[in-house]
Amino acid sequence: MFIKTRHGAALSVDYGNFDLYAHIYNSDGCWDANVMTCCERVLRPGDVFYDVGSSAGVFALDFAKSIPGLTVFAFEPQPSLAKHIRLSIDANQFDRVKLLEILLGDKVGEGSLFLTSHSIHASTIPRERRYRELRLPLRTLDDLAAAGEVAPPDFIKIDVEGSELNVFKGAETMLQAHQPSIVFEADENMRRMGYATGDLLDLLTKAGPYTFFLIDAVGALTPLRKPYPFGNFLALSPRHAGRI
After folding, report:
1. DSSP label at residue 53
2. Residue 136 burial by CB count (10 A; 0-12/13-18/19+): exposed, middle or buried?
3. pTM exceeding 0.90
4. Ranges for the Methyltransferase FkbM domain (predicted)?
5. What is the pLDDT of residue 169?
6. Could you tell me which residues are beta bridge partners of residue 137?
């Protein structure tokens, strides 16, 4: 079974996570429509887009459908979701979308992913008392880039349930060299991981002169100021300042 994203990409439905796809269907083919709108404001034809924590693949597949010449790297470690992203890539005949079924972090080796009652709560630290642990390949974005497995990004969307800081630590060389614009989530999951929003902003500021915005409910941008709220943020690269 397939449903459509908002720009008409075919999305294969994983029945084991049916409520996830029901939400997408009932949201006109979107997941976090405000974040999708923000991404679309910055992305341009021919860009390289990373969808880190791809989940059902809505961002990766919808943008591949709607933005000409976009190259997409979708990162999703959950086997069932990754299987259906792969089915969606094939169904849409997307030859510029690559799926990487791995964990991302700040080191290379093997890592744990804890699956709980819902796929969107999968995390590198358990969020519930009952969980299933998967041992998966663990890579860094810097390692993948050095190995030639990914192209340098123009834009990164990341939503990895609190592991954002570790992913950024594993991408410091890439961030400094290419300064992609980044959309990221900062919420209560950071507390489980032992850091705060300011730690994310400090790391990104060391990588380059980013400008930070809060993304509101309709995708509009407000300059980020203290005290930092939970929410979705845009780190706008100086090379993209003329895009918004």
Report:
1. S
2. middle
3. yes
4. 51-208
5. 98
6. 110
